[in-house]
Design a protein that fits this description.
Length: 311
């Protein structure tokens, strides 16, 4: 593996940051365990996350405070890196879907998926019933996620037009695959806690828990507004909390000057990692962690410069 030393944003030699240039993940080689095609989903990060999980022991627990489609937590629990994982998500629609999958209403959900004939009318009908109850809302969320352009659930998002191979609205609706993924998750329900709540609260509650592994994937600084209903996040506070955690954390962000400044403000080491977007464009993302020993490289801790996080 090629390793290169990346120069810091700053000329100050104390702010040396080590970055590694791994290969772009072929997502086809990664088990897709989430029923959602979630914008900003981290399937491509699974091989790297496994290396990070490998530090865990029998007492460790994983918390994913910005769960979205939850691929990292699902992988961690399905592949037995952790006995128990906790997923936290603020979005009520996503919460309804996760709660339904993990409850006895899962059978009902599976039946709805299996018998659903995709059309604009049937989608609108499912959406119209979303207010009937939690399970109906959960089903409507899944339908919208699989039939909306880019899987986007944010207000203003629209349905797929031409879709894959001209299959239009049904181009991402694979009922048997969805049912299998949902049934697999439901089978692990005793090992998964889902909380509809605020990422910051759970991070604060477990701040000094040495057995906690936090996988933190907040809404993107640039694209978040278009992708999620909840996109406004105090990013600096995330870095502040991460710098105080007694356990381990892995934080992912888009690679911008601002994000590098936040990491440097709290003296947190970071590295770049390449990923391929759905439009097959390769770009870098940033990983920030308490240490990169698990990755097999010697990251140098940046020296805290809190003035970078002011104003
Ligand atoms: C980048 S996405 C997470 C994607 C996820 N890692 C995946 O692989 O699917 C960020 C998520 O954070 C959620 N979110 C935003 N603010 C939140 C908050 N304060 N607490 C919990 N979740 C929040 C958004 O609704 C969105 O689902």
């Amino acid at each position: 593996m090629r390793q290169e030393l990346q120069t810091s944003l700053f000329t100050d030699e104390e702010l040396e940051v080590v970055a590694v240039s791994p290969q772009v993940t072929n997502v086809a080689s990664v088990p897709h365990r989430s029923p959602f095609r979630y914008p900003g989903g981290k399937t491509w990060l699974v091989p790297t996350a496994r290396k990070w999980f490998a530090q865990s022991d029998a007492d460790s627990q994983l918390i994913e405070p910005f769960a979205g489609g939850g691929i990292i937590a699902l992988t961690a629990v399905a592949e037995h890196y952790f006995d128990h994982v906790t997923m936290v998500e603020l979005d009520d629609d996503m919460a309804a879907a996760w709660k339904t999958i993990l409850s006895d209403d899962c059978q009902w959900l599976v039946k709805q998926i299996s018998s659903f004939n995709v059309s604009a009318d049937s989608i609108n009908l499912a959406i119209a019933h979303a207010d009937d109850g939690l399970k109906e809302r959960g089903f409507a969320t899944l339908v919208r996620n699989r039939t909306n352009h880019g899987g986007i659930l944010a207000k203003g998002s629209g349905m797929i037009k031409t879709g894959e191979n001209g299959r239009g609205l049904s181009s991402r609706w694979y009922p048997s695959t969805l049912v299998k993924r949902i049934a697999d998750i439901h089978r692990m329900r005793d090992r998964i806690t889902f909380i509809r709540g605020d990422a910051f609260e759970i991070m604060e509650q477990h701040l000094y828990d040495e057995n906690c592994f936090f996988f933190i994937d907040p809404p993107y600084t640039i694209a978040g507004r278009r992708l999620y209903n909840h996109f406004e996040v105090d990013h600096c506070r995330i870095f502040e909390l991460a710098s105080q955690m007694s356990g381990h954390f892995l934080l992912t962000y888009d690679d911008t000057l601002e994000v590098r400044e936040w990491a440097e403000a709290y003296g947190l080491p970071y590295m770049t990692i390449p990923m391929q977007t759905t439009h097959l464009v390769t770009k870098n993302e940033l990983l920030i962690s308490d240490s990169f020993d698990w990755y097999g490289c010697n990251a140098t801790k940046t020296k805290p410069r809190l003035e970078l996080c002011m104003g």
